Amino acid sequence: MSAQTVVSRAALSQKRGTALGLGAAVLYLSLIVLIPLAAVVLRSQERGIAYFWDAVTTPDAWAALSLTIGASAVVAVINLVMGTVIAWVLVRDRFPGKAVVDTLIDLPFALPTIVAGLVLLALYGPKSPLGLDLAYSRAGVVLALLFVTLPFVVRTVQPVLLELDRDMEQAAASLGASTAQIFRRVILPNLVPAMLSGTALAFSRSMAEIGSVVLISGNLPFKTQVASVQIFGQIETDNPIGAAAVSTVLLVVALVTLVLLDLLQRWGSRRG
């Protein structure tokens, strides 16, 4: 058997393996993600565009969507700043208990969100041991969303800081650059893509949250009711088309956010 034949068979086997893997991935994604999302969008259009628009612009639905998107935007901005600060402290500073703090960052990923809501209600509810009552308020909603989205910016910025070439900072310092100039001109440009990516993920995650906010918010219509709870209420009142319509709005916002995230990641790759 010639070497060329062996190479050809190996290439053919590799192509078959790639096709099989791609087919399995597409099938899995279709069953788990694409088909259910398409079903929601189609259900929201069962009675036409006019009914869809009426469903998402009812006073309670519009108030819930406004609160959800607005609170998610606030949470994303806070995460952008504080997540970057926490990542910086974990990478650049040394202090007792650093490993414990680093582990606790991932706690919102592992903890059931309804448990998180119960803990937040106990700490910041009417019987707060801290003397801070945020229950049944929009501040409580923001607090709950901050808890569940804490890791996103931290975990996207942290690896970039770890891989950042410290020689560039030392070279800038040797040329007389101040600490602020080094951060602004050397460090920050490398961090911005990761910071924005983590912020986009935190924003998308906030819009979908229900477990941690359902207790501390009180679910007061026009005041503290978020879109996920409003959707659940629509299902309970036998209005699945209205629930699908509000869900579709959240889906579109999340999709736009993820497209922007992909563009940011490509931009970061080109800069790298």
Describe the structure.
The structure is a single chain. Helix content is 81%, strand content 0%. The longest helix has 42 residues. The mean pLDDT is 85. It is mainly α and 272 residues long. The radius of gyration is 24 Å and the shape is globular. Helix 6 crosses helix 7 and helix 7 crosses helix 9.
Give the integer mean of the pLDDT values: 85
The helix content is over 70%
Roughly how many Å is the radius of gyration?
24 Å
> Strand fraction band?
under 5%
Would you identify the regions where 5 or more consecutive residues have pLDDT less than 50? Answer: none
How many β-strand stretches?
Answer: 0
Question: How does the helix and strand content classify structurally?
Answer: mainly alpha
Described by the principal axes of the CA atoms, the overall outline is globular
For the termini, the CA-CA separation is: 45 Å
Secondary-structure element string: HHHHHHHHHHHH
Biggest β-sheet, characterized? none
What is the number of helical segments per DSSP (H or I, 4+ residues)? 12
Quick tags:
mainly alpha, globular, 272 residues
Write the layout of secondary structure elements.
Blueprint: H1 3-44, H2 48-56, H3 59-92, H4 98-104, H5 107-110, H6 113-124, H7 138-163, H8 166-174, H9 179-208, H10 213-216, H11 227-236, H12 240-271
